[in-house]
Amino acid sequence: MGCCSGRCTLIFLCTIQLIMALERQVFDFLGYQWVPILSNFFHIIIVILGLFGTIQYRPRYIVVYAVWTALWVAWNVFLICFYLDVGGLTKESDLLTFNISAHHSWWSEHGPGCVRREMTQPGVHTANSQSYVSVMGCLLDYQYIEVLHSGTQILIALLGFVYACYVVSAITEEEDSFDFIGGFDPFPLYHVNEKPSHLLLKPMVHKST
């Protein structure tokens, strides 16, 4: 299977997925989103596994990658529903931080055009007084940025799934055809006798007593 085929396309898609996953991991770390951090970590490992399987013609690794892409699509659909408050989910909950902190998406305070202001409660000026953050002027709300991220991940994952199935099918067909012509046969049809021909034709000589 040449490089100008689905195999090269899958290598390209895996590389794009790896770059996008690393970018997403950085911003999830900045926002202390622990559940997405773990999912991104597993995603990076599986994408590297799929990339290795594609380069080294290992269909089993590519099958693992294909199964994971289906799960990855489902996870990103959940994130879209979470940030759009669909099905009883709400983006204001602490679900993505295991309910151990009140952190939200990094983009909620650092989106394009956002102006972040930290303000203290009026009339309280002690060292322990709590402050709250006011964000204004955002060109795009953070939930839509997260939805765009997830939508792009879904698109690339679906393409990766299709090409992974194609590459596995192509590799399997090549292996079957190679085995059919005797490529893996330890006893080929036209094997050569190990004994030299002149020894086979040499007459038997008995010594007379």
TrEMBL record:
An example Gene Ontology biological process: regulation of sodium ion transport
Regions that span the bilayer: 37-55, 62-86, 154-172
Organism name: Umbra pygmaea (Eastern mudminnow)
Family in the record: Belongs to the NKAIN family.
UniProt keyword Nuclease, yes or no: no
UniProt keyword list: Cell membrane, Membrane, Signal, Transmembrane, Transmembrane helix
Keyword hit for Lipid biosynthesis: no
Signal peptide limits: 1-21
Membrane topology (UniProt): Multi-pass membrane protein
Subcellular location: Cell membrane
The protein's name: Sodium/potassium-transporting ATPase subunit beta-1-interacting protein
Superkingdom of origin organism: Eukaryota
CC per GO annotation: plasma membrane
